[in-house]
Amino acid sequence: MIIAILAGSYGLQRLLGDDNFKTLVKRLVAVLIILSFLGVISAGLIILFSPNSAIREFTWTGGNFKLSVKALIDRLSFADLLLVSALVLLTTVLLIKINLSSTRKIAAIVVVNLIINTWLTLPFTGLGMKTKRQIHYDMTQAPRGIFPQELQPLNKTTFIDSSLRSEFIMLGSYSKKIGYPKEEQYPIELKNTQKFFNDSSLFLFIIQQSYIFLSSDTTETSETNFDSTSIKIRQFAPGYLHIGVNNIKYRFITFLQNDYPYWQTLINGKIAKHYTGFKTFISIPIQPGHNEVEFVFSPTPVKRSIIVNCGILLLGLISLLSRRLRDSLLVT
After folding, report:
1. Mean pLDDT over residues 70-87, rounded?
2. Which pLDDT value is given to residue 60?
3. Model's pTM, two decimal places?
4. Strand order across the beta sheet in which 212-215 lies
5. I want to staple 76 with a disulfide (CB 3.0 to 4.6 A). Which of 80, 92, 231, 311 is the partner?
6. Do 327 and 244 fall into the same domain?
């Protein structure tokens, strides 16, 4: 995207220096006027004959203005959104056409267009429903920084107030704690996670455990332990957990982290094979005695793609900064 913006900026600069620029702009404005006008007509006809238009059925009942606007926007259909967008675009382009000779006025019109579109989305996201101070307070209920989570049952662990779920969705992430006792609304739904939450008996068993615990087996009837005398948190960070374990009789240790690919587990500095335990989590067999256990997330393909992207970005910057190379590419 950075390369596209830089290259586009250079292309725009060349376009602005073209003698035919004003003619091109007039043609572009004319096309946009036609398209936005057709959008208004099409949306109007769909709304007229459609039973699902929130705009046509909207009636003002008084009360809180923001809540009323949010309720309206939440119910908008595709045709409603098309009508609003087309009207905003049509008004903007007509004003640009009228003030085509004034660069400052055009800039002001574009800024107002961005403000209007931003305001229209705020009630939908919910950010316009509270002040910034209130939002900041809700988001910072958890202490600052990354901190080791307490070793206690999940059903006794304090997470961010569940009443904020509709505003922040992923409350476990805002709480900065593992084991939020409700299925998080990730962009991708994990089949194993869904199976776990659909298994009520297993769910009840897990929320009585800590986010890291020892067990005699990997079934919901197994004996468990997560006492601080048995488990010591050495280091806790995103994608990394290092613990010291004093194991007397237990056979497994389980970390309540979805067993994604590229998770690695180490016992006493050596890589140890782990399993998917309790349908979705990371479980490792552990020997009696003292063990240093590490859970490491190391996504090799992501690291490689970052290196490749950095290389592409560097080459792109070099090509844009080098006049001779840039001009030769444009000629090509």
Report:
1. 82
2. 65
3. 0.64
4. 224-225, 212-215, 252-255, 281-285, 275-277
5. 80
6. no
Does residue 81 sit within a domain?
Answer: yes
Does residue 161 form part of some domain?
no
How crowded is residue 315: how many other Cβ atoms within 10 Å of its Cβ? 11
* Calculated CA dihedral for residues 263, 268, 270, 274, nearest 10 degrees: -40
Residue 261 Cα to chain centre, angstroms = 20
Query: Which residues, in sequence order, are CB contacts of 14 under 8 Å at separation 6+?
Result: none
Mean pLDDT of the residues in the chain: 85
**Are 201 and 275 in a shared domain?**
yes
**Residues near 212 by beta carbon (within 8 Å), at least 6 away in sequence:** 151, 226, 231, 241, 243, 253, 254, 255, 256
Residue 170 lies in a domain: no
Residues 238 and 320 in one domain: no
| Phi and psi angles of residue 147, each rounded to the nearest 5 degrees, phi first | -130, 150
Final residue before a domain boundary, out of 107, 129, 151 = 129
Report helix, strand and coil shares of the chain as percent, to nearest 5: 50, 15, 35
* 84 and 198 co-located in one domain: no
Tell me: the pLDDT tens digits for 90-145?
999 999 989 888 889 989 999 999 988 888 776 655 556 667 777 777 777 777 88
The answer to whether residues 210 and 181 touch, using CB atoms and an 8 Å cutoff, is no
Answer whether residue 117 is part of any domain.
Answer: yes
Domain span at residue 57 reads: 2-129
Tell me if 263 sits within 8 A of 255, measured CB to CB: no
CA 121 from chain center: how many Å? Answer: 17
